[in-house]
Amino acid sequence: MEIDPLPNGTGATAATTTETTVPTTAPTAASNTAPSSKLSQLTDSLKLEHQFLRVPFEHFKKTIRANHRSVEKEVSAVISSVADVADSNELSKDDAVLSLTSLVSRLQGLKRKLEEGNRTENLHAQRCRTRLDHLESVDAENLSEWNNIRVKRILVDYMLRMSYYDTAVKLAQSSNIGELVDIEVFQEAKKVIDALRNQDVGPALAWCADNKSRLKKSKSKFEFQLRLQEFIELVRAENYMRAILYARRYLAPWGATHLKELQQVMTTLAFRSNTECAKYKVLFDPKQWDFLVGQFKQEFYRLYGMTVEPLLNIYLQAGLSALKTPYCYEDDCTKEDPLSQENFRKLAMPLPYSKQHHSKLVCYITKELMDTENPPQVLPNGYVYSTKALKEMAEKNNGKITCPRTGLVCNYSELVKAYIS
């Protein structure tokens, strides 16, 4: 998503150096006069959207693996049954017919599974192709429409991450971008998240089993943390013998790599759930379930190659990083500055300050410095000049302004104030 900068002269500031007079053009001028430049910017920003292709591709691979395991299991069972019938010397004719009928029925079921699996794989392959076609369709003529779709995709992504599933589905349907967003993938995650919020680890453990090899490759601790929480719940319910049996079966295998955490959790058998000892009391805190939800989201994003932060936040931070200066946090910060709003300030808090204060804006017309006493103003074509120069021009031409570089004629009232920090 390209975030159109506010007309504040920021782009011009970055283009000037200390005490140097150069033609100063705001970002909007480039966007209006240089489509190729826009396409170049788009290419750079798409590097942040690797998940646009990665997510359906990972889902495609996951479907193939699941279908392969299912078919392999069924084929193995059929071959085993055939071998049993072939090795049996005392099988009657009726029993043989019954066994063969059962095998035929099982093979027919396997055929249906193969056909269903093939349809599912084709759907995922088609989704990957649709997204590739969407990326290839962008050109200078449809860039505005393409960016509009892109904004909606990013909004759907944000809504899904914030659990606004119904709203995300409605926006995707109304915009006809169902193939370009990952609603199905997030709905899969929703089942696990809802279960964890209801203090049920079953769906989460099933998810871990489905993705065991990949979680193991990334050295994930998520399954271990789920097992610990299930043990804690048994202790909370005072099912101590059951908790011990559970620990022997599910926790002991983790002892070689997570002995310290295992020892701490096993000690709760002695301290019990009503302990006041902070080290063990925290294990019974209901917020542990919120921690598991957060941990699952991180593992889920990593599994599908998604960014941990929503794309909307990333793009907003990219824009805010160019605007953030110490002046933005002062009481007299202009209301035209996005960072005058508390939500934007919070989002920009971890970002470094822009280095704009090392630059100076020099008016192209008067060659005078543009500052708070002589602030810059932006013409409709995006070019920036000083207030002093533009006022003098307007007074001499009945309120008309003529851009000395492009020849554009406009009214003084059409100018937009820019701010500098």
UniProtKB/TrEMBL annotation:
InterPro entries: CRA_dom, CTLH/CRA, CTLH_C, Fyv10_fam, LisH, ZF_RING_GID, Znf_RING/FYVE/PHD. It comes from the Eukaryota. Residues 10-37 have a biased composition (Low complexity). The keyword RNA-binding does not apply. Residues 1-38 are annotated as: Disordered. The keyword Transcription does not apply. Its main location: cytoplasm. Residues 333-406 form the RING-Gid-type domain. Keywords: Cytoplasm, Metal-binding, Zinc, Zinc-finger. A zinc finger (RING-Gid-type) spans 333-406. It is found in: Cytoplasm. Residues 185-242 form the CTLH domain. PANTHER family: E3 UBIQUITIN-PROTEIN TRANSFERASE MAEA, MACROPHAGE ERYTHROBLAST ATTACHER-RELATED. This is Macrophage erythroblast attacher. It comes from Hibiscus sabdariffa (roselle).
